[in-house]
């Protein structure tokens, strides 16, 4: 895993970091925060698109959570490859094509987005952070798995279906009741105060 990668804290100074074999935290947001992923069919489309990309340009998915209007991923690329941007672009294209097939694209695409050959499905940019060490990886995994609770979608991480939390519980890396408030529990909550994210949160 790459080390000594600077943590960029101001978007105005932000430059993407490309590290061969790196692990990257990625956030993709839908256009105007349209809750596309409130529909299970669209989650299926997303999974199809991701599976297709992995056959074209392999990578490992360490963590993921799908929320109604945005997605968080942790991807690890092959040792000789740093091009997560191309994979993200391909993901956006494939998912949009699957929507088009269902005639589900939003209407009235703006002139600016037509100029950039974009539809009203995704925000133009995406957020990326290069994981710099094991502690940084653990923090971002916690962030991913707590995100549905943070956004008020569920009360506990284990209640959100579309999350890698369940996979990590099976691996024994998380307890099933991590950050769980069921039955009146008051668990210690993860602290993300010193982490910096894109505008989706």
From TrEMBL:
Which segments constitute the Transposase IS200-like domain?
A: 19-147
User: Per its UniProt record, what Pfam families does this chain match?
Assistant: Y1_Tnp
Q: Which BP terms from GO are recorded? A: DNA transposition
Q: Which InterPro entries match?
A: RAYT_transposase, Transposase_17, Transposase_17_sf
MF annotations from Gene Ontology: sequence-specific DNA binding; transposase activity
Under the heading SMART domains, the entry gives: Y1_Tnp
PANTHER family in the record, alphabetically?
REP-ASSOCIATED TYROSINE TRANSPOSASE
Q: Which NCBIfam families match?
A: REP_Tyr_transpos
What is the designated name of this protein? Answer: Putative REP-associated tyrosine transposase
């Amino acid at each position: 895993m790459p080390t000594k990668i600077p943590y960029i804290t101001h978007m105005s100074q932000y430059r993407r970091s490309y590290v061969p074999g790196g692990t990257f935290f990625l956030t993709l947001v839908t256009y105007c925060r349209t809750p596309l992923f409130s529909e299970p069919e669209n989650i299926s489309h997303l999974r199809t698109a991701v599976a297709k990309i992995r056959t074209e340009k392999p990578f490992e998915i360490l963590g993921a959570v799908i929320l109604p209007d945005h997605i968080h991923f942790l991807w690890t690329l092959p040792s000789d490859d740093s091009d997560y941007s191309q994979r993200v672009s391909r993901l956006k294209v494939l998912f949009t094509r699957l929507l088009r097939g269902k005639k589900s694209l939003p209407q009235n695409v703006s002139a600016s987005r037509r100029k950039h050959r974009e539809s009203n499905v995704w925000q133009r940019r995406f957020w990326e952070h290069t994981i710099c060490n094991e502690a940084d990886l653990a923090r971002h995994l916690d962030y991913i798995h707590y995100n549905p609770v943070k956004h008020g979608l569920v009360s506990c991480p284990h209640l959100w279906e579309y999350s890698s939390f369940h996979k990590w519980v099976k691996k024994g890396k998380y307890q099933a009741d991590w950050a769980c408030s069921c039955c009146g529990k008051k668990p210690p909550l993860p602290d993300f105060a010193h982490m910096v994210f894109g505008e989706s949160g």
